[in-house]
Amino acid sequence: MQIEQLGSCLVALISRHRKEAVETDAQNKMKESEDITHGFTVPCYWQSTGTVLYCDSASMEQRMSIRPVVIVTGANRGIGFGICERLLRQLCYGSPPDSAPNARSSSGRPWEFWQDCDGLTLLMACRNSASGHTAREQLLKQFDLHISRLKELAHIERAKKFRENLNVEVAVVDLTVASSVLKFAAWTREKFTYVSHLIFNAGIAQFNGVRALPAMKQVFIHPSTAVKAPRYLKERVGDKTGDGVGLVWQSNVLGHYILLQSLKELLEECPNAQGTSARVIWMSSLSTFLDHSDYNLHDIQLTASQHPYQDSKYQIELLAAALNQAKLKSNANGAFHLVVEPGIVATGLDQFNNRGLWRVLRTLTFVTARLVNSHSFPTSAHDAAISATHAALVDLHPLEARLESSDKSQLKFHSRAPLKRKPYVSYDQSLKLDEVNTARSAQILVVCDRLYESFLPVQIQRE
Ligand SMILES: NC(=O)c1ccc[n+]([C@@H]2O[C@H](COP(=O)([O-])OP(=O)(O)OC[C@H]3O[C@@H](n4cnc5c(N)ncnc54)[C@H](OP(=O)(O)O)[C@@H]3O)[C@@H](O)[C@H]2O)c1
């Protein structure tokens, strides 16, 4: 008995000694990091060269390597594929052009940016496995071709190293089926310890006609908004998913919200693993600048709305603004929420205008818009993806004042594509969390949370 007691005393003594040694080591490293940041106590550990100095829970190897884990929904085609393509091409350079402007921090506060990656895990979240795998093959083939065309030796070496550490996986997720989203999230939690970017790109629109009178009115009174944000397009109304939820709403809003909630812990792990906060990028559209006075507070799932697509994008901006304000207020490990829009580009989204005479008319309209110097009509999904890749990579520090603006407006990044010049990104503070919008966003959050919680037990039973 006495020997057993002596043994346990010894074990306790040794583990206390070890704990103290670890704590002293950590304190020394913390002090070291404070010295380098000129006395500012910063929660994560960057110095002005952008090298990770020290992270509590990261291994030595992790400390030295920056490896984003990026999930892109709807990655198999259109703008989602463009985002994947663009991300690879950007990250194989030491200083990705899409990350500009890249101003240096002077306040000693941590920067929030993603550059100098020596590898990447890209999860292409697709509804259909076969088309996901075809897209993956195409993506890697194009990327290899891109590397083979690089001319500068330094770029080639860097790109080859990045390629070796590149892991592209296809995962099946149908956003209109809550159990599919929860299953994908469970798989992700099993495989990865953190997620650095969630790019919520997937979306549907069910345009099926044109209302002649409103069309003429908008074309004559506001010709530019008639093309950028048409209010005269008819949409199918009232469709529901197998989960009993509004179809467009679940595809564009709820499905992503469920994914966000299910991967919350992995996003919160990002600062520990990579030294910087994760980012959630919400794909919106140009049309949200329109007046939303007809928004119906009693139709959150947009089953009665005449414009479920445009209203879903407005809701996305409301959600992102509220979640971002909460992150900035708490200053906790949570992710930044950023809103982007791709301009207007011909993809599979608008099935109605993709046919016959409408297709010809659409092409003519886009060409005319470009000729009259509108920058909102990129010629490819690759160009349209620039706002998303920029939001994923840019140093947020120079934008901090705008992110934290006292009037609580949401920063929105726009893809811009001038004729015969390279695409670029502009940003503005489009949506303001005033009294009305705050109440609306709170209401959407309540409904999303309630539905998310109602789906959880179903998933647990299936497992
Ligand atoms: N094109 C534009 O001019 C434009 C303008 C403003 C905003 N946007 C936004 O940009 C985003 C991408 O649109 P896009 O133009 O690239 O359209 P797209 O070519 O139709 O691509 C949509 C993508 O979303 C996926 N998707 C749709 N429903 C899904 C579901 N239930 N579960 C999982 N994935 C689903 C599609 O998968 P499948 O292949 O399986 O159908 C496809 O990969 C959308 O959010 C859209 O609202 C586009």
Automatic annotation (TrEMBL):
This is 3-keto sterol reductase. One of its GO terms (biological process) is steroid biosynthetic process. Signal peptide: none annotated. InterPro entries: Ergosterol_Biosynth_ERG27, NAD(P)-bd_dom_sf. Keywords: Lipid biosynthesis, Lipid metabolism, NADP, Oxidoreductase, Steroid biosynthesis. Gene3D superfamilies: NAD(P)-binding Rossmann-like Domain (3.40.50.720). One of its GO terms (molecular function) is 3-beta-hydroxysteroid 3-dehydrogenase (NADP+) activity. SUPFAM superfamilies: NAD(P)-binding Rossmann-fold domains. GO terms for cellular component: endoplasmic reticulum membrane; lipid droplet; mitochondrial outer membrane. Belongs to the short-chain dehydrogenases/reductases (SDR) family. ERG27 subfamily.
